[in-house]
Amino acid sequence: SQQGEEDPQALSIQEGENATMNCSYKTSINNLQWYRQNSGRGLVHLILIRSNEREKHSGRLRVTLDTSKKSSSLLITASRAADTASYFCATEKAAGNKLTFGGGTRVLVKP
Amino acid sequence: GAVVSQHPSRVICKSGTSVKIECRSLDFQATTMFWYRQFPKQSLMLMATSNEGSKATYEQGVEKDKFLINHASLTLSTLTVTSAHPEDSSFYICSALADRENQPQHFGDGTRLSIL
Question: Does A2 touch chain B (CB under 8 A)?
Answer without folding.
Answer: yes
